[in-house]
Amino acid sequence: MRILRQILRHKTQCFLCFLPLAASISLADPNALLRKPWIMDSEAEESRSIHRLFQSSVKIVGETIKQDRFGRNYRITPALVIHYIIDDSYRKEFPVLSEADMQEREMLALVEERREIDAIFLGKGIALCHRILKEKDKNINPIWAEKANRTTNALLRKYEDKRAELFSRTDPYGCYINKGNEISHLVLESDDFRYKVHVPKDLIFEGLFRKDFGRRKEDQSVVWNLIRFSEFLKTNEQTLDEEMAENILLQEAGIIEKSPKKIIFSLGTTFDKVTPSYNEKTYFRFWDERRGLQSSILREKKFTRTKENEDYLSRWEHINEIGQKEQFLMKEAYFYKRPLGYFLSLSYPESEKEKAEQYWNLIRRSFYSKEY
Length: 372
What we know:
Radius of gyration: 23 Å
Oligomer: single chain
Helix content: 25-40%
Shape: globular
Strand content: 25-35%
Largest sheet: 8 strands, antiparallel
């Protein structure tokens, strides 16, 4: 809240937010969570956890290049010291609970390459991983957590006069949670808007591939922000005749291929600067306006919204590039308690209803705000 008030004087880029239909990039499947219990000696823990990742490389003569679970390169010295390679193939990621020791080395590499704000983002995620571990054992204080915390605090002091930039590029942050050999979900947290939510693993944060994490605007009465997570869906198998017929339609339309269908999770937040025109019951209208849901658009897309327990279920008709009609659904939830408000939505093709129900249950069950 304090940081948010300090950045209200900064102007942000204006844009119009439509129904969530943007693209994203998917991740590689992750590895296993360390099953053995964390030990009290943090120095020994770091040595053991780092060693587990490259036991086959202990006897190497020179440096070895390897890749982490996300396909990013790092070097291992004969002394088993990790150096992340920050090159054109590197991309940002949230830290993984069982590998936060590795991510602390990644953080140092970002600092060395003068990507200090990216290092702050990663450091916040590492701190969240540490807090999650401490929920199970209050005595867990691994050395990687202490090192990452010192680095993060030093960088935050350095960028103390650049609050707006930090806000747009380091909040929210997160930590992937492992179960067995796979990531189960992402824990996402925001300091500025004071929320926490669990996000399904296959929904990928679009902000990882941009300089700024989301879309935001400030006017005289409110600051609002929107972030999105997307999942590309596999196309259904077609018969040869169906595929040929579709290719003809694409060629006639001058299109190489159809845009892939997606499931999109959107999370919007608002901070009131003055008394707003909306209240708890009319808060949804604020987001309808920001998404361009005008009466003419609603009629054109045959958009309907019905109450579903405490949430809403919206339906609309989408016509794709070759003129085919597709039905889309969207789960929506709104929370407002001045000065903070939250908007959650999950849009998906009607054919993905079962998967979307599972996603929405996780999101809604886990969403938490410190203001409520």
